[in-house]
Amino acid sequence: MAEGATLYLHLDHRAVHDAKVACDRLFGRGAFLGEIIWAPGNGGRGARGFSVTHQTILLYARAAGERGQVVYNAADPMLREPFAETSLAMHFKHRDEDGRLYRERVLGGKAYRYYADEGRRLGSVWTDIPGMVANTPLRREGTGYPTQKPERLLERIVRASSAPGATVADLMCGSGTTLVAAARLGRRFVGGDRSQLAFATARERLDREGIAYSVLEVPEALRDGAEP
Amino acid sequence: MAEGATLYLHLDHRAVHDAKVACDRLFGRGAFLGEIIWAPGNGGRGARGFSVTHQTILLYARAAGERGQVVYNAADPMLREPFAETSLAMHFKHRDEDGRLYRERVLGGKAYRYYADEGRRLGSVWTDIPGMVANTPLRREGTGYPTQKPERLLERIVRASSAPGATVADLMCGSGTTLVAAARLGRRFVGGDRSQLAFATARERLDREGIAYSVLEVPEALRDGAEP
User: Fold this and answer.
1) DSSP state of B31
2) What Rg, from alpha-carbon coordinates, does chain A have?
3) pLDDT tens digits, residue range A116-172?
4) Could you give the domains of chain B?
5) Among the four A110, A148, B63, B213, which has the fewest Cβ within 10 Å?
6) Which of B98, B110, B18, B55 is nearest to A17 (CA)?
7) Nearest-CB residue to B125 (from A17, A37, A70)
8) 70-129 of B, contacting A, C-beta below 8 A
9) Dist CA A188 CA B120 (whole Å)
10) What is the ipTM of this complex?
């Protein structure tokens, strides 16, 4: 992992816990930066108890262990959410000269002003990004690739942990959503996948979006058209 | 674990993954029933990346591994949530003679009718139960116990996985929220804790609620008033 880079690893509840233990061994326990819960909001409900309707994204960064610099663009509007209703009602009692509602807190002798309309930093539970399935507004994004993620999810991740000009790598890039999001946001990208379908889908999608790229190396297994 | 019983284990992101691996070893991987994400909705946002604003509850049941009977009271109104807006708009197009909106699906040659006003089974991400901190409506519940959970959280769990008359056990019962919820819902309860503060808080609370109980055994360590 490069200095300043954050690794996002997306898994479901059947695999995430073992993966966390394995990543702790690989990167060191201190490199664990936290986790995000993505609730796409759709999906069936099983008959036999609670259906698990979320997936987990584990975050690791070398700098987390060393108390070093972690890239996190908290001011990005996509990384903010409205203050809780109770908080708004209890704490935001002042208005500035432009009529904007704010709260003031004094911490360590220094006054901090929080504006209601700027919202608070996004927490770890993301319920505002619907999944691809059965959701009409997202159909135009669809490539038919089985595990395709919505662009908004990857856009938020790219915005959160990289600056324009940085390189975003997705080495299991599937249909290429991460690469498209990175390119649109002015990041450089590196994609990889061992699946022929992913390779073809991602290339076609980048071409369709008019995004320039070069193919560095095509392994033998992907040249003969066989799905490894 | 008793036949038909479900174990709920509540932890945060720093501990939950290791606990999952340990529980898999203890109960068998097949006994893992799923997990619930509880997002209390309040709490500070750290300066250094995504603040983790949720906690995880792991679910295990002997019967899960054996494909046996798992108690899950899905029809309980507290175990249901409104259908997603997109689903309501797309699928609920019929009205019955009482004017109730419904959707009909034919699965395996059999027609199933779903009523919009009954909602769908609750998913695994619970954002509708605020935590205890800085939340005025919950202050009357407060005992001052440091890790106290809201009664609504425990009430939902007790309703989900037990029938009236069943026994609910909380062997790290803290301030006794589980015991109070169980008693109110007509369940029998067994509580335990190795902390003097928990023991005193839970007893006082049960007394205040007028809930009858008997003390089976007070270990030596809890008799002398020392916090172990």
Assistant:
1) G
2) 20
3) 999 999 999 999 998 876 555 666 788 888 889 999 999 999 999 999 999 999 999
4) 1-43+51-70 (no CATH), 83-118 (no CATH), 124-228 (3.40.50.150)
5) A110
6) B18
7) A37
8) 70, 72, 74, 84, 86-87, 90, 120-125, 127
9) 43
10) 0.88
